[in-house]
Amino acid sequence: MGALSGKHAMVTGAGSGIGRAVARTFADARAAVTVVDIDAGAAEQVCRRIVDAGGTATAVVADVSEPGGCDRAVAAAVERHGGIDVLCNAAGIIRRGSVTEISEDDWTRVMAVNVDSVFLLGRRVVPLMEAAGGGSIVSIASGWGLKGGDRAAVYCASKAAVVNLTRAMAIDHGPRGIRVNCVCPGDTDTPMLRQEAAQLGAETTAFLAEAAERPLARIGRPEEIAAAVLFLAADTGSFVTGVALPVDGGGIA
Ligand code: NAP
């Protein structure tokens, strides 16, 4: 028996990086997984890999910053798997810059993808979880939801919003058996981290070396973030709700 046997999980941003690792980890834990991503090829590849390994998965192409994309993703999950027991919000983007450096469009887009998606999916998934007697939502926030960082104004604002939305949802929906938590990763080896270097005009090797400056003296692996997500999503986290868990090699410490 896996930790998520008999459960259905939806993972957004599951085509790459942390979301992909979460989708695979959930599938290894025996969940049926709805793999949601804006990138069709990436979603289908992750789905195929899970199915080839003996798991159950469905790929859905959707922009989760849009109500219509969230409607489509949830409808597909319900049609294929009958409901959603676990939701992991991993879709996210970053635009590095101070408030004077980023554009107003960048502000709007980052807030839409990183924050609106958690709201839009939450309002669709919570009623399904209530009807099923409970569920678990885990969002991927960031260490920069707990502290500030340089030239990352909108990203810091968006991740702090995810942290406090997590707490508010935990309070509202706990009485109906729905736990809501978030994981706050430190720098993790994904395409996003390399995009940050490019956005800042930094040399990648030097940027990654600086990112490794933390007590454990390295950046994280997506699978290490996924392990913490699984702990919170499954019954291992049955008395945990409303937390923002740093998984960051001691970066926040
Ligand atoms: P990633 O490798 O870029 O993966 C993010 C995935 O989300 C990509 O497949 C991306 O597609 C997809 N996506 C973007 N916008 C979307 C939308 N509107 N609807 C559906 N899918 C969308 O990034 P990652 O590093 O794994 O990041 C995952 C989460 O962890 C994010 O929320 C990020 O903020 C957070 N995080 C990452 C780090 C880190 O160091 N990597 C640290 C702290 C927190 P495209 O590639 O086509 O855009």
UniProtKB/TrEMBL annotation:
Keywords: Oxidoreductase. The keyword Membrane does not apply. InterPro entries: NAD(P)-bd_dom_sf, Sc_DH/Rdtase_CS, SDR_fam. Coiled coil: none annotated. SUPFAM superfamilies: NAD(P)-binding Rossmann-fold domains. CDD domains: SDR_c. GO terms for molecular function: oxidoreductase activity. PANTHER family: DEHYDROGENASES, SHORT CHAIN, OXIDOREDUCTASE UCPA. Belongs to the short-chain dehydrogenases/reductases (SDR) family. This is NAD(P)-dependent dehydrogenase (Short-subunit alcohol dehydrogenase family). It comes from Actinoplanes lobatus.
